[in-house]
Amino acid sequence: MKIKVLAMLLAIWAGSAFAASMSVQVRNCKVRATPSQLGATVATVDYGAVVQAGAVQKGWYPVTTADGKTGWVHESALSKKPIAMRAGTSDAATGVSSDEVSLAGKGFNEQVEAKLRKEGKLDYTWVDRMAAYNVSSDQLMKFRLQGHLPGGAQ
Amino acid sequence: MSAISNLRSQILNSRPGIAGVALLSALSTVMFFSGCAEVSEAGAGIAAAAGVISADEAQSITRSAKAVEKSWQDLTPEQEYYIGRAVVAQVLQSYAPLDRPQANDYLNLLGQSLAAFSERPETFGGYHFLLLDSDEINAFAAPGGLILVTRGMVRCCQNEDELAAVLAHEICHVEQKHGLSAIKQGRLTEAFTIVAAESAKQMGGEELAALTREFEGSVGDVVMTLTTSGYSRKQERSADAAAAELLQRAAYPPAAMVAMLERMDARLSNAGGLGFAKTHPSAKSRADALRAEIGSTASGSDPARQQRFASAMQTIVAGK
Fold first, then answer.
1. What CATH number has the domain spanning A2-106?
2. Which of A29, B8, B99, B145 has the greatest number of C-beta atoms within 10 Å?
3. 3-class DSSP state of A11
4. B123–A76 C-beta distance less than 8 A
5. Tens of pLDDT along B57-79?
């Protein structure tokens, strides 16, 4: 067990030696204790937040959050492009062109959805109910154990 | 009228003659050679340097050129999420949801535990699953991870492993962004042009209305593909192959997929080409292709899994 922990810390350290800034491109990004979606959550990082990521290993980045927490994040949750949370302001602040920045809040966004809702074109009642079906890592682990499914090959 | 056409007519009206021709030429490059942004940007740069157009206009052309180059692959996970939500809202205008909390809980436990083993486990809003109150044998994967499965499809499965195969196939459509690929390029070009031109300031009412129109069109393209025209045979095969691998990683027998497809083929041949049969290549040809790849067709389920599957099935059938 100790060796496992040591190996994990070493992997995180080795990764962070070549750390690069990456942005969280999903709404709630969970930083995991192990490189697995079933791993325990050590921190949650918001959309647009920047983490320091080491070298990717089989789809998983070892990361350090802004407040110094370390763990693993799957590559599908991260973007190399900075994500500007507000149009206009950040362009000026970072000095990069809009093409280099993923503009959160631009394009097909909540403003567009709000317009469709207001005009009564689409009913989102069940979409919201559906999106509220959330399963925790503990529930997933329990479900797999109960179904005699091992951890599975990651 | 497109933003590019708008820009083109504005400039032509205000600057006639050689200047207009030069600019028209630059714009035509933008419109017809979408793969060559360097050329169009250079054209805009030359026109600006020659004083034919202002620096602002040149910048605008450059932005448009970049927008023309962009495709569905450039949609961010957040944009994909909003498209997926609207796709579901629209599909639910034709299919009623099945309001059985216990069955939907089970579907989400199974689906989300599979998504954890996907090549793309993280989407902007995560994977969520919902049963539809329809006897049609069908399933829909909206962009971003919202997956709808009819009662008829669930009843087509004999055990949890086969239902896992259905969900894995749909998860792989999301993973490979097949829904987004159905959006017509023209709509995206319009949308990206608006976004690029307006990125430095708040979006006004007119831009929002234009963007909403493109959004509605994009959602319509995806819904049309999901419910009527279907994905390409290549995309279906690709989702099948990826699903077999996903099942393997999640410790479910991939052979369950072959068994499920064979059962579906038998049921669909009696259903007269409705639902799934309308939008998917023949289940038999898919089963044959998959069997050639993964071998055995043996499929049976663990007793504990069988018990919880049967229990969920009871709530699905109850009240009908």
1. 2.30.30.40
2. B145
3. helix
4. yes
5. 666 656 566 666 778 888 899 99
